[in-house]
């Protein structure tokens, strides 16, 4: 076995293998050495490693002896010993004692374990922690092995840059904000249940209770109340216009506003009629100049009401009335009246001259005129039915007298009314208000597909066949009749030709889906003859959609029952059968138009490239090369009538989105689409240089909410 190489110590250049005998070690050095140990285990582990002892087989005697020497040295140096050092010394003495004791001879007794085991375990555990601490200590440590370099960054002072924003950019941003705000705007209309019958009873009851009742007393504050105004809503533009006229005629200011419904569900627009209940009203007094001396710039609203009233309103100010305070009754000129210069005259029989002549209203008011039902005309001369007759005296006062006292005689009761009022059966038994409503309803009627002449008609003064009723008289004007006796030789959509006995051909022009001034009204003729038919002069050639068999037919005859039906016909409600709804199907002509622009794209092919997916291929195939629906085609909801696509243009104060679309050459869809819920037929197309008109004809059955005028 080789001996381990001895380690030499070099002192002053000389190597020493053993310590000199006269080496002096000062006590302070030993003290520093002892204080370097962290505890008794640390000291004990040092002694074991110094002598190269096996930690699993510790020579307790040697270790104990060396340990106690260190303890004695510490006592000599007067070092304070910790209790744990003394405890370790006692533990070593105990282990040594137990090892010196003899082992028991009996094999049956349990063999006692090695007394050093617990000390070995503690030494091994301490060694592991010491090695771990040493490994951690060898790792690089900040502020010992590693030092972080730090440097202060230089400070740069720079003035803040102001954004380069023009006024146009600010306006564009403001417009974008306003546009986004509009997307969240909503208008909700809550339906309000109002009974017409109940309101009529309320009005009549208050009128019967007092001689004078203010108009505002007919309304309740809880109904339609916004601020200090009454508000009424409806989806009917005609009803809104009628309510506005009623409010104006009764001396109050009114305003109509339309709330457009842009939702995809396509509900109807809502019209709001607002009644301004302002107590400040003025009536123009007599003798006061009927003009204003105040300078004014803005809108001036004027309205003339029958009876001599004129309503004038400057902008949003309070309206003023001039004229008398009573509203007239006659809204149309009566039959026979004509205008001579600036004077309106009516025909009467002059008892002095024995001839018919036209007199003015001034002459009528200052004369005595016999009422038409007080006489009978025989051979053109009036004969009284009694000795005394009733006549209209001065200032329209009814009086009774003889024929010799009278100046004129009215020829027929129909002279009191206009044409439509004369078509009301038993008008002498109707109230003026009801008669006025009936006259208006007939003027607003829409033609029916299954129309019929009325069973009860009103007679005219004439005894001639065909014009002995007002329905026949109006039918003469509405239908087309032959001017001569002859034979029908040709029938075209716009005319019918009749050849007389001499061989001359007479052309009778007929209506071919002729649009009227109303938004949905149309005149269209349907021939009732065929080529080769013989006709008489005045004979019927074609009916229009307002006539049947040559007589005026603006309605149909239905069977009516007066009975309750499940509560649906309570108050003003009407219940009609499905067959009645089909029989009341009405004919409409919708007029659609579009103003053209030279920049518009109208070709179906180019439109389909610019706007993919808006219309299907089948929808575009129904259009001509100019992108317009063809005559005879059937259009359904959503189908295009007129194609149009315009490029985005950058204008003043336009939005940033529009600017982007303009730069990328995007286009906007300007097409006219068929938005009705009913299918329609294109009956005519009119193209001009700058406009396109398309007329679509529909047949629409009566629906819930439609207005129905009937006479029982």
Compact overview of the structure:
This protein is an alpha+beta fold and 712 residues long.
Show the helix and strand layout.
Blueprint: E1 9-11, E2 14-16, H1 27-35, H2 40-50, H3 60-76, H4 83-100, H5 117-138, H6 167-183, H7 196-209, E3 225-226, E4 229-234, H8 237-249, E5 253-259, E6 270-276, E7 282-284, E8 300-305, E9 309-314, E10 320-322, E11 338-340, E12 343-350, E13 355-360, H9 361-365, E14 369-370, E15 375-378, E16 381-384, E17 389-392, E18 398-401, E19 408-409, H10 419-422, H11 432-443, H12 470-478, E20 480-481, E21 486-491, E22 495-499, E23 505-509, E24 514-515, E25 522-523, E26 525-527, E27 534-535, E28 540-544, E29 547-548, E30 551-552, H13 578-583, E31 586-595, H14 604-610, H15 617-621, E32 634-635, E33 640-642, E34 645-647, H16 656-663, E35 667-669, E36 672-673, E37 680-687, E38 691-700
Parallel strand pairs: 7-10, 14-19
Antiparallel strand pairs: 1-2, 3-4, 4-6, 5-6, 8-9, 9-10, 11-12, 12-13, 12-19, 14-17, 15-16, 17-18, 20-28, 21-22, 21-27, 22-23, 24-25, 26-28, 29-30, 31-38, 32-37, 33-36, 34-35, 37-38
